[in-house]
Amino acid sequence: MMDWTDRHCRYLHRLMSKHTLLYTEMVTSPALVRGGALHLLDHNPQEHPVALQLGGSDPAELAEAARLGAQAGYDEINLNVGCPSDRVQSGSFGAVLMEQPALVAKCVAAMRRAVDVEVTVKCRIGVDDQDPETVLPEFLAHIVGAGCERVTIHARKAWLKGLSPKENRDIPPLDYDLVHRMKGLFSNLHISVNGGITSLDQAQAFLDGGLDGVMIGRSAYHSPADILCQADRRIYGQGEDTTAEDTVAQMLPYVDAHIASGGRLNQITRHMMGLFAGRPGARIWRRMLSENASGPQADRQVLVDALDAMQTLAEAQKAV
Ligand SMILES: Cc1cc2nc3c(=O)[nH]c(=O)nc-3n(C[C@H](O)[C@H](O)[C@H](O)COP(=O)(O)O)c2cc1C
Fold this sequence. Notes:
The structure is a single chain. This protein is of the alpha/beta class. It folds into two domains: 7-236, Aldolase class I (TIM Barrel); 244-319. It has helices spanning 7-16, 29-34, 59-72, 86-90, 101-114, 132-145, 176-185, 200-208, 218-222, 224-228, 231-236, 244-260, 266-269, 282-292, 300-319; strands at 22-28, 50-55, 76-81, 118-123, 150-154, 190-194, 213-215. A seven-stranded parallel sheet has the order 1-2-3-4-5-6-7. It is globular, with a radius of gyration of 20 Å. Bound molecules: flavin mononucleotide. Belongs to the Dus family. DusA subfamily. Residues 1-308 form the DUS-like FMN-binding domain. Keywords: Flavoprotein, FMN, NADP, Nucleotide-binding, Oxidoreductase, RNA-binding, tRNA processing, tRNA-binding.
């Protein structure tokens, strides 16, 4: 998620779940290919499985960007056909490409020719006054024809005229039934649903209902432990539950290495604010991180102290 997630966030999330597939924020093909911004591909080997999401609309340029991504070690290259921001519209990519399924198919085909790893698509159900009932199956038929075997559908339209990117994540109504119907029409296509999913129970219900996968965005960011700590056991049937406390302990060497290489603590802790969301002491955890993690001298001790304060408070509350 642009401006929210980054490699530190993915490292944190990977500690909580070994099996969930993590995605980068959208990286544009012009930035990689024309701008040479290869640092945007930096990631930690621990992050796997991890997909690189690309934004673009030029088949040759996307193919080159995909090649760079695969060479950098990403397990999957995903094409963004869902982002509604103005900046992206002006570059003619993101959700506006729902109006050009033939071009998207060309992009997918070119990317597939360029790499051995899987090429996938994330899309909306339509944009503006398009009728999703007709547009979405047409769109899926095009990408399937180009060899795409896996798609994630954000189950709401993007209204490109009139809504901000933020409003476009909440205001257009969700249509999960349409996504289920697409699975009926495209039984060989691996279909994941996205949009408004806030718990593993809800995710499991989609899987039980016949969908192949579930993508969780904002809830995984704001309450990562609720979504990720039980995901391996409950969704993948493999591995043990993890805890937020263990995750903090496992982050400490990563924090040390980041600071030793000249980084700031708050570049990492900004992703850890919600780690104890909904639990006793969550507020003191958040407060101690926001007050203490930004100074140039801040190091792992900030996390150790915040955890300690949180646990002391939680114990005291239990005793009352
Ligand atoms: C701050 C922010 C940045 C986002 N950036 C991206 C992005 O780079 N690529 C993408 O496919 N979706 C992006 N999204 C959309 C989410 O991936 C997701 O489709 C949307 O939030 C709905 O799912 P959710 O209700 O689980 O969050 C972003 C969402 C937010 C809140």
